[in-house]
Amino acid sequence: MSEGIVSPDPSPYHRGGVEAGTPLDGWSSKLCATRRVGERAREPDMTAMKPHRIAILWRGDRAARQAATPQNNRFHRVFEELAALGIEAEPAVYDEAFAAEVREQLLAADGVLVWVDPLHDGKNRTELDALLRDVAGRGPWVSAHPDVTLKMGVKEVLHRTRHLGWGTDTALYRSAAEFAAGFPERLQTAGPRVVKRNRGNGGQGVWKVELLPGTGRVRVLQARRGSIPEELPLADFIAACGAYLAADSCIVDQPFQPRLPDGMIRCYMGADRVVGFGHQLIKALIPPPPDGPDSPAAQPGPRIMHGPDAAPFQALRARMEGEWTPQMMAVLGIDAGSLPIIWDADFLYGPRDASGADTYVLCEINVSSVFAIPDQAPAAIARLVSARLVSARLRDRRC
Questions:
Q1: How far is the C-alpha of 68 from the C-alpha of 76, rounded, in Å?
Q2: 351 φ, ψ to 5°?
Q3: How far is CA 384 from the centre of its chain?
Q4: Which fold has domain 21-146+379-398?
Q5: Which residue of 4, 150, 200, 393 lies most exposed, with the fewest beta carbons within 10 A?
């Protein structure tokens, strides 16, 4: 979307949504094992090559798979920009019920772009991630690769990068015993906290927790739309979070940010460069008005999309491109070729510094299913896809 345009998706939380250690989005795992000793690499004849082929994968049922075309879905702009660069792109609607069919489709492609939430109608990505790893190991590159997602697109990244300029006081718990021992003291001494399950989307498993002094009870509010505050014994809340530990291996907690009503800034990234911003006055973790969580006053404002050059966000852009993204890559062990082709970092406003300038606190990174996106993003996605496809083909031809 162009600067100042309103996004059709007003939700403050999505996907969850990113990671690596593994091969450049999968494609560098193709080894040059068949090349004869002493054989010279020949430069490919680019004019004789077949068009590149990309599969764009999202979740849906059998009827959605049969009906899908490049024009009749929310990714149509991405399809258009890929076609403009001579790249053939096809829909690859996925469900566990026909996973084998999707696998064969992906293996016939040169690359795969994935838009699938961590959680959806009781389903998770366990089977899909195994399928994508298998496909990536057989040739096609996958973005985002599941191993990259498990480094970037999880709440644990908030703890691993807490020492960077976007970080804050963040605790990590890997067991129920750790959570029961450490969280009450932090709540007592540091004020309201935000507890987050490791993988989730739509505000699921994200809770504002306030201690009710002298009672052993807490007031909690989940970030999901329509939630209302509840009061319960702290021990009961801690016990309920055990399900997150069982499913996701860890929980993190951060301080509640008092400037939450000033809105959230979503910084959209194409690999290691900013491709746009979205600013939204969110209502997640803010108690609903007396009229209830479904009243108009309880709804989030529209997300206003801006291009990468939008003046209000240039300080944030400079830090994302020049400092925080390279530092994150070093901490997580992710190289530039393995960064997701599209991802975003969500920031809340932190306390103003001594000069009165804004600071920014990272509250999550989304990798699994980044959408809606700014108007400039589809073309940036297509250019990045083209570059990776050409690099992969040159590599293969030299093997």
A1: 11
A2: -65, 145
A3: 17
A4: Rossmann fold (3.40.50)
A5: 4
